[in-house]
User: Which sequence fits this backbone?
């Protein structure tokens, strides 16, 4: 198995505060990896340390099958969390500059920059200064800058924040194309739906520590069903109201617990003589898992 | 981090062309020559129009001895003292009774030579006594009674031999006006150019580094190139833009200076010592490098352009000090103050240029100062790269001696 990123026992302290505490996970080549965590959990510090921007206090980091950050960087595309470009500079010039620093020839960097601007619908803004662009447009320019040199590993820190749904969709399509090309994609976020839509593997970090790491489907399966969706013409009053949530078209979702098992729900409908049109056990959403895990950590603090 | 010379070259090219596209650079680069040309052509016209040619020039206590007889017919002029001999004149000078003392030799009409005795320091070309005395000679022409040859000679500028007179009235030869200017002017010009470059070039560098930090472009840069490549590329790129600016100014000056000089006693034929020029250019580079690396370090350690600008003023002041103290350094270029300033990297460039202007005899010290400055420049470049890197390593941390030290240790 080959790895685009391996982090082993990473610890990073700022003064007396430990912001990343003994974190270990790995990302296989060619996959889309979601790095989850609430605000201030240590995601950005982990990414910055992995890229060699910060220096770790302990632990090992290897990129692209065993390389150090400095060795791997020419083959890595990076979108930082804190966005910004030279405000007085033309969009096309900035892309050419960053493309050249990533190893492209001058003309090649310029052409590739224009091609990517075409793809994100900013071609007509190529000669505008950055200060003339909206925040979302600037973010897109930075995004394409991270792809300009056809990187093997793309690391995006909160790539979708602040973008409208159309641009989010556009970015996802471009990332899908990059994965198809063979690139590995790692992105951090706290928007669970993005991860569920795009990722095969995830890691969840909260309060500096890694809480979960693995295949998304497997994580959800391992949690077991946590709800039952029932569709019926009417619903019995004998089941606990606190665990009952009304849905669309006569659907009701029951949250499962030790006091409320699927067979108890079936019994209640059967006893009331109600005929079911749908009875389905539901796996927990990533959102549920996220909230549960993070809440547990905070309660145990 | 990656140490690729290619990266430094790319950053150099980008910074250079970006600087050339800046409106402020263009205005400054082409504004200075325009002012220079205005001074060359427009100012003399204005002066001519407003000056009263018929008026008698004001002479401020000037003494003279005339062995040639060209001024014999002149009546007594207030402030102009005809003296009987050299000793009396130099003593009057030593006693501060007169501002300057001129000796017109017997062969003046044949040679055009005049001896000019002065107290203290300052460049003769900037001393109005020469012009005032020359006007006295012109009065002799107006007075009539001179032969055609004498008139022709007087209408030509005199060739002054300079003598300094000490407090006891003892004269000492200090060459001609041309010698003095040839010695002082290039050093002065380079000192001023260096100051311009320091203010413009390193100011831009400071802005470039802090802006990239402020707008977070820096994270993209440090993941693309090493700190050393970034700093080297920036310093050289902005330095080259500064050099181009100076080349443009010098080209205009090369055209304008002879025009200006013709208005002063025939100084158009100024010649420059090639070795001196090499030394001045080397000092220019070393001095620029020191200040630029300092500015880059300040930019790297600061959190905003405003903060960086305030700190940078402290660093720039030492560069100006030797020029400010030129009245002390030029008359005694080998004095303790001048020598001390030669070996301090922030004052070395301008202090050495002032010492050269003053005609220092300790040339080895100038070379030693150059070597010290160049070494300091290289050291500061290395330091600026580390500070730049450390500034990033200190993301989100409070600055303390321990954290800064740790950051500097890890700033590879």
Assistant:
């Amino acid at each position: 198995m080959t790895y685009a990123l391996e982090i082993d026992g990473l610890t990073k302290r700022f003064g007396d505060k430990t912001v990343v505490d003994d974190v270990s996970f790995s990302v296989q080549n060619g996959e889309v990896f979601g790095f989850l965590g609430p605000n201030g959990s240590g995601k950005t510090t982990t990414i910055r340390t992995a890229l060699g921007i910060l220096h770790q206090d302990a632990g090992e980091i290897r990129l692209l099958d065993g390389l150090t950050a400095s060795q791997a960087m020419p083959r890595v595309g990076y979108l930082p969390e804190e966005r910004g470009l030279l405000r007085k500079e033309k969009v096309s010039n900035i892309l050419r500059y960053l493309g050249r620093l990533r190893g492209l020839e001058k003309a090649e960097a310029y052409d590739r920059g224009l091609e990517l601007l075409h793809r994100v619908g900013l071609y007509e803004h190529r000669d505008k200064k950055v200060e003339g662009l909206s925040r979302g447009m600037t973010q897109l320019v930075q995004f394409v800058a991270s792809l300009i040199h056809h990187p093997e590993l793309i690391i995006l820190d909160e790539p979708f924040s602040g973008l409208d749904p159309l641009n989010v969709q556009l970015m996802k399509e471009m990332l899908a194309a990059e994965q198809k090309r063979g690139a590995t994609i790692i992105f951090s976020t706290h928007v669970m739906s993005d991860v569920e839509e795009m990722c095969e593997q995830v890691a969840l970090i909260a309060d500096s520590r890694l809480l979960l790491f693995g295949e998304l489907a497997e994580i959800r399966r391992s949690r077991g069903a946590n709800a039952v969706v029932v569709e019926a013409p009417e619903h019995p009053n004998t089941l606990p109201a606190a665990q009952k949530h009304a849905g669309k078209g006569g659907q009701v979702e029951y949250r499962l617990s030790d006091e409320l098992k699927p067979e108890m729900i079936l019994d209640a409908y059967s006893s009331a003589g109600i005929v079911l049109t749908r009875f389905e056990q539901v796996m927990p959403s990533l959102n549920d898992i996220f909230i549960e895990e993070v809440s547990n950590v905070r309660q145990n603090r | 981090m990656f140490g690729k010379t290619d990266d430094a070259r790319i950053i150099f090219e980008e910074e250079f062309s970006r600087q050339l596209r800046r409106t402020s650079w263009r205005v400054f680069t082409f504004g200075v020559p325009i002012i220079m040309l205005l001074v060359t052509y427009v100012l003399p016209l204005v002066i001519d129009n407003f000056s009263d040619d018929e008026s008698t020039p004001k002479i401020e206590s000037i003494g003279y001895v005339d062995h040639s007889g060209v001024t014999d017919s002149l009546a007594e002029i207030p402030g102009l003292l005809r003296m009987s001999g050299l000793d009396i004149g130099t003593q009057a000078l030593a006693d501060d009774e007169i501002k300057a003392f001129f000796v017109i030799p017997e062969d003046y009409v044949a040679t055009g030579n005049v001896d000019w005795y002065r107290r203290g320091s300052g460049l003769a070309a900037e001393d109005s006594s020469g012009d005032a005395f020359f006007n006295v000679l012109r009065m002799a022409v107006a007075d009539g009674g001179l032969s055609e040859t004498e008139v022709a000679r007087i209408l030509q500028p005199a060739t002054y031999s300079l003598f300094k007179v000490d407090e006891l009235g003892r004269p000492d030869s200090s060459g001609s006006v041309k010698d003095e200017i040839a010695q002082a002017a290039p050093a002065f010009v380079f000192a001023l150019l260096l100051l311009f470059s320091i203010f413009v070039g390193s100011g831009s560098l400071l802005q470039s580094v802090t802006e990239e930090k402020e707008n977070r472009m820096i994270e993209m840069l440090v993941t693309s190139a090493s700190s050393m490549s970034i700093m080297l590329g920036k310093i050289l790129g902005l330095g080259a833009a500064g050099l181009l600016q100076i080349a443009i100014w010098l080209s205009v000056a090369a055209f304008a200076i002879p025009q200006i000089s013709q208005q002063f006693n025939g100084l158009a034929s100024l010649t420059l010592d090639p070795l001196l020029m090499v030394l001045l250019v080397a000092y220019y580079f070393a001095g620029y490098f020191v200040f630029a690396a300092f500015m880059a370090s300040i930019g790297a350690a600061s959190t905003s352009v405003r903060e960086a600008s305030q700190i940078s003023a402290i660093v720039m002041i030492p560069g100006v000090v030797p020029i400010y103290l030129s009245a002390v350094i030029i008359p005694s270029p080998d004095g303790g103050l001048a020598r001390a300033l030669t070996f301090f990297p922030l004052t070395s460039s301008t202090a050495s240029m002032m010492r050269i202007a003053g005609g220092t005899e300790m040339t080895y010290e100038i070379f030693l100062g150059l070597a010290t400055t160049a070494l300091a420049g290289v050291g500061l470049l290395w330091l600026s790269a580390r500070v730049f890197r450390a500034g990033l390593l200190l993301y989100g941390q409070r600055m303390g001696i321990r954290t800064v030290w740790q950051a500097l240790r890890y700033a590879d």
